[in-house]
Amino acid sequence: MEKKCAIAVHTLGCKLNQAESESLARELAARGYTITTGNKAGAFIINTCSVTHTADRKARHLVRMLRRLNPQASITVTGCYAGQAEETLLNCGADIAVANRDKQFIPGMLEAGLQRKAGPQGRAGTVNAADRVRSFIKIQDGCHNLCTYCIVPLVRDSVYCAGADAVITEIRDRVRDGYKEAVLTGTEVGSYNCGGLGLAGLINSILKETGIERLRLSSLQPQHISQELLDLWQNKRMLRHFHIALQSGSDTVLRRMGRSYDTALFSRAAALIRGSLPDASITTDVMTGFPGESDEEFDRSYEYCRLTGFAAMHVFPYSARPGTRAAAMPGKISEKVKKLRSRAMLGLAARSADDFAAGFSGKTAEVLWENEVRKGSGVFSGLTGNYIRTYAHSREDITNTVTAARLLSPAAQAAGTALRASTRGNHGELWCEVIK
User: Fold this and answer.
1) How many Cα atoms sit within 13 Å of 115 on the Cβ side?
2) Which domain holds residue 100?
């Protein structure tokens, strides 16, 4: 039988992209290709993001680098950036750019183009077993909210929801493959509605009809938080982590952004979560330097974030996206000011993450162990159900196992200085002891 080349799949951006990349990888593995994530292969798929100009730049850089390292390889670029910058990406070295709406055709397109090629990258028909820990399941796509800064509705303009039977079948398949955790993802997960079945109904069906050990949601809007939804978290398989996009803690900025909530609604959603699930983590996205953002508005946003006490904050400066209403708004903020505001907000994010994690010192939590951070180090990395990044020393390979772990205090962590060279060293992370 002819040996097929290896295909490397690189994913930039959101969890929805990760879910779609997983689907592409599984389809290509079923066709006999070895799937990798490295920089040497016979073919590459790059699933791009375009939420900021930095995301665009990362995509261009990756294409150029892979072309330089693999002059004869096939490079296919897809995702949000591919849908609007085909010529640019081709000039960077890509062979083809495929828009989001045509992603499902990529395996067939590659098969046709590579059927005569043979590669040096191992046996055919495999996916890296180390990746079989957490699977991203796409349940919804598309958004019509038209927030003034967001390019997503322009590049994901078709709204779609997967049927409950299809979602359940996919999760059962992932359980059979050895996955311990599934993450339900989409452009706007909370708006899921298929034939009258909403998100709460879908989750309830998954819990009843699949054996997945851990179930997590990728991102919600504050208006989608309800007591009916939160009641499902009484099931211990539901992981107590809620990522809720804030974008700004200033109501006047939120109105200019075209967001469908204000800080009062966001606060009610956070209070509802904490009232029902006191140990839950709430993480968020915060933008700095939106057009017209005054010093007072930034200070208000900063103070709101401080008082809310997020477990983690993804902080990023505003980036004008072509075709969006905000790109034409007056009051552009200088790059210098945006950088200063981002730096201040990132400092707050670090302190908030440390404070949240410290609150669990001395407690016991269930951890899904993902991998050994460096081969031979004996240090393994994992996530608690409420999204605290943890590290533990183990003589046994605990990859893709769920164990109880005792989270250590900051003082106890200091004893692990020699091991910290093997870890990421980010804020809000804890050392722990695995409990057998």
Assistant:
1) 7
2) 6-114
